[in-house]
């Protein structure tokens, strides 16, 4: 099978990536990813201007049907990751960045612009905005403002990581903003925000920060992830690629993301559950499905979801 995929100016030898935040924070974790077969590229943990310890534990909780997390953006600071992506030769990288303010984002991106890094950058728009306002990506005016500031100086390949939307008008509104900018891709979806898991036996929450509210991932968010991939594919300019993220546990889920329009697919929660061998299994299952259906390459079925 030919599973090669193009994203911006980069050719990946397969469609699978790690979801930012999962096993990609430390140099040991990043080295593991570089040695993981059938993982076509490496996405770094969203990096901030300064290193962050993140929230108190427990901050990640595994569930039969997915996961909940309130990590709190633990990361080694953007200089560490900017240095890493300039060394990494085994696989193409996507350098994920986050800011606690628009000014922080601009400062980090300015350094990336001035660096020798030629790979892809991804701006995490699920980050908090000014207090009292929703996260940036849920504030369409703020999203437009930060992207206007970015593209005043940033000329390298850059995409955005989006939270899930749940209203068709919101799909229209975010696409209308993004179509005005030369972004290389959209990575959709981030975790489903502010879920709450209750341990009935203990009559308590399962994660410490934010009173137990946290981002949901894994199997339970697959329909939301597929809807966001499909809706944005139907609305975004053709030259904006899509990384589909969310709910992937089988090769059929990878197939479904691509059928909805994804160019690449990232896997998060299932890596925690199964380990990095999951990429081999997902690839085998995807190839078996393609053989069964008579498809030779991903483009044979990408975006071809049929309506009734
Ligand atoms: C949620 C934020 C802390 C604002 C950004 C980092 C992040 C986190 C995190 O570090 O808590 N978890 C997610 O599932 N997605 C994210 O984008």
Question: Within the CATH hierarchy, at the fold level, what is the topology?
Answer: TIM Barrel
Q: Give the radius of gyration.
A: 18 Å
List how many beta strands DSSP finds.
Answer: 16
**Helix and strand string, N-terminal first?**
EEEHEEEHEHEHEHEEEEEHEHEHH
Number of structural domains: 1
- Give the termini distance in whole angstroms: 29 Å
Estimated share of beta-strand residues: 15-25%
Fourth CATH level, the homologous superfamily: Aldolase class I
Largest sheet: 8 strands, parallel
Contiguous low-pLDDT stretches (5 residues minimum) are none
Q: What compounds sit in this structure?
A: ligand YRO
* Secondary-structure content class: alpha/beta
The average pLDDT value, as a whole number, equals: 97
Which CATH C-level class is it? Alpha Beta
Describe the structure.
- The protein is an alpha/beta fold.
- The chain has a single domain, classed as Aldolase class I (TIM Barrel, Alpha-Beta Barrel), CATH 3.20.20.
- Helix content is 32%, strand content 20%.
- Strands 3-16-15-10-9-8-7-4 form an eight-stranded parallel beta sheet. Strands 5-6-14-11 form a four-stranded antiparallel beta sheet.
- A hairpin with a 2-residue loop joins β5 and β6.
- The protein is globular and about 50 Å long.
- The two termini are 29 Å apart.
- The mean pLDDT is 97.
- Ligand YRO binds next to loops.
